Amino acid sequence: MRGSFLFANARWLSVGLLLTLTSSFGQTYFISIFADRIMADYGLTDGEWGGIYTIATLSSAAVLLYSGKFADQVPVGRLAAMIFGAFAMVALGMWLNESPLVLVLLIFGLRFCGQGMISHLGITAMGRWFRAHRGRAVAIAGLGYSLGEAILPGLAALLEPVIGWRAVWLIVAALLIAGFAPLIAWMARDERSPQSMTLAEHSPGRDGRHWTRVQVLRHWLFWALVPATIAHSFIGTVIFFQAVHIGGVMEWSKLDMTAAYPVYALVSIVTSLIAGAACDRYGPDRMLPFYLLPLGIGMLFIGPFPGLWAWWIALGLTGLSTGISHAMWGALWPELYGTRHLGAIKATGSTFMVIGSAIGPGITGLVIDLGIDFTGQTTAMLLATITLSALHLWVVTRLPQRQPTQSDTG
């Protein structure tokens, strides 16, 4: 990547990175650090906690399907400020609340603001602000996910025994409202040229037109891609959501397990940058048939091997799939369907991603309550990734030919 591209676009690229970084507070890898404390304080079983997570996350997916279009209509800085205000209020609720019923609403708020709108806004902005270097821009923004994964769970695990898990959420609220919100609002005070609101500057999809969400939903291609978004989110979520449970089964401590998260993040970062450049050169669809396989193989390392090294390998392979996913999906939606209605279309795809992350904890938690621990569920996940990879080999052959993009500043 040319240094001039980074230098000329540092402010806008930083907006995407900071948005994905702050989405971490609503991501499973952060929330799950407190799973044992939440279950103990609220008197929940694995299945009940998973059920709450499923209900809250499915609800957030339903709302995201409607609200995602605001990324097309409201300037990034203004919309980010509104989301951060709501996010901080939810974090304060996690600090103060003692009601299991209110807990459902709070988890909904964390998932909708963090995993949903903030993440959606960051990647959508990159897809619309950049064209020739869209894959690279999305990959750079995706580094925020990896930084959050590398740093925040470990910090939370260290702070929790010192100040209590609830007080950690008070710190989160302060960071969101007093730190990240004003910083991002200032950095995104104007849109990158080409202006995201200027229709004449939008780039069309592969077939030369701008798809609407209705047209996308009526076409077979979108529904052929949906199972992959669900599967990756399902498996990538439950490995973190059930980390405390896995640690109990394997007799690994929470601190020892979170020490492996930077490995996951580092693999994600390196893979995302490589995948972003490959997306720009060859097209993001080329990665579809392969990106789920490392994730499925990684699941087979959880259970058979007692050493903590197996957890590190599982997370490393998961990071490989995640890194490709960060670059691929952010570049694939605008390349296939154009950028004019990108926010609405990407929100639809993100909704199914959220559905995958919602049903994963509920299903695996219920199976655990039935007597089959997580280590006994991993073979089915590998088989799912193999099946979907075969489906995508067929899908790639049916896509319109990729049109060459004239090089520009992004």
Structure description:
- The protein has helices spanning 3-8, 10-22, 28-31, 35-42, 46-67, 70-73, 76-96, 100-129, 134-163, 165-187, 213-217, 220-241, 243-250, 254-258, 261-282, 293-299, 309-337, 342-369, 378-397.
- It has 410 residues and is mainly alpha-helical.
- The longest helix has 30 residues, at 100-129.
- It is globular and about 55 Å long.
- The termini are close together.
**Beta-strand level of the residues, as a percent range?**
under 5%
Total number of beta strands? 0
Helical content (DSSP H or I, runs of 4+): over 70%
Q: How many helix segments?
A: 19
Shape, principal axes of CA atoms:
globular
Instruction: Give unreliable regions as ranges.
Output: 194-200, 406-410
Mean pLDDT: 84
- Note the run of SSEs as H and E: HHHHHHHHHHHHHHHHHHH
The secondary-structure class comes to: mainly alpha
Short description:
By secondary structure, the chain is mostly helical. 75% of the residues lie in helices and 0% in strands.
Topology overview:
Blueprint: H1 3-8, H2 10-22, H3 28-31, H4 35-42, H5 46-67, H6 70-73, H7 76-96, H8 100-129, H9 134-163, H10 165-187, H11 213-217, H12 220-241, H13 243-250, H14 254-258, H15 261-282, H16 293-299, H17 309-337, H18 342-369, H19 378-397
